[in-house]
Amino acid sequence: MTAPRRPLALITGASRGIGAATARLLAPRYDLVLGGRDEKRLATLAGELTEAGPVAVRTVAVELTDDDALAAALDGIDRLDALVHSAGVGELGTVAETTAQTWRHQFDVNVVAVAETTRLLLPALRAAGADTGADVVLVNSGSGLTARAGWGSYAASKFALRAFGDALRAEESGHGIRVTSVHPGRVDTAMQERVVAHEGGEYDGSRFLRPESVGAAILAALTATRDAHLTEIVVRPQG
Q1: CA distance 152 to 239
Q2: Angle, nearest 10°, between helix axes 67-74 and 113-129?
Q3: Catalytic residue from among 154, 159, 164, 208
Q4: What is the pTM of this model?
Q5: How would DSSP label each residue in 173-207?
Q6: Is the CA virtual torsion 40, 42, 46, 48 positive or negative?
Q7: Among candidates 158, 156, 154, 121, which has minimal Cα distance to 138?
């Protein structure tokens, strides 16, 4: 008897933080495509996952803002059950001190690259959606719901990412594709260390969400029964 096909999930930003934690949580259920810029970290994670269980893992080391390289890296994926956008950048600063270059870079990574990756993979997502259903998960931020002083360009990019998710959800629901925006509070990651340093504070990771906690919210969205659609998930640190 032929074993049932394992669903396939692609995770961007998988070399560390929320992306890597999500990969570990998805590995028992999904075969994986791990995307990121750090080829060595991706290979290490792939080895860890394949050693732990019967999962097929492919790594894709690519700069998401390089359109040609991205298209080449994603070529050949003809069916995709889940796309998790975890890659992103967070550059802080007041409106007075934030340059046009920072605004463009932040939107390029946090919005344009997400849109282009999704566009390229839509035929593969629709192929799965027409059969058993497919999912797109956007790892957004609390800053995609509320903008604060000093977070202008980052928050603007995350508000835009939320709008992208809303539009994609409305356009693709008829193709069996669910779209979930996950809005975590502060997470214990390398990016958070840079944020705290920027704010002049002393870093204490225990005050923040663990990456695995955000990964669990992503897993909940992906494994919800098909009659349910978790359109927006907000996760905050306890206390």
Answers
A1: 26
A2: 20
A3: 154
A4: 0.94
A5: GGGTEEEEEEEE--BSSHHHHHHHHHHT----GGG
A6: positive
A7: 158
In angstroms, the CA 81 to CA 127 distance is 9
Please provide the DSSP assignment of 21-48 as one string: HHHHHHTTT-EEEEEES-HHHHHHHHHH
More confident residue, 231 or 190: 231
pLDDT band at 203 (very low <50, low <70, confident <90, very high): low
Note the pLDDT tens digit of each residue in 110-128. 999 999 999 999 999 999 9
**Per-residue confidence (pLDDT) for residue 139, from 0 to 100:** 97
Alpha-carbon dihedral angle through residues 168, 80, 118, 170, given to the nearest 10 degrees = 0
The two counts, helices (H) then strands (E), for the chain are 8, 7
Tokens of residue 33, six digits: 């495509």
Distance of CA 210 to the CA centre of its chain: 15
| Residue 203 annotated in active site | no
pLDDT at 94 over 60: yes
Structure confidence by residue, pLDDT tens digits, 153-162: 999 999 999 9
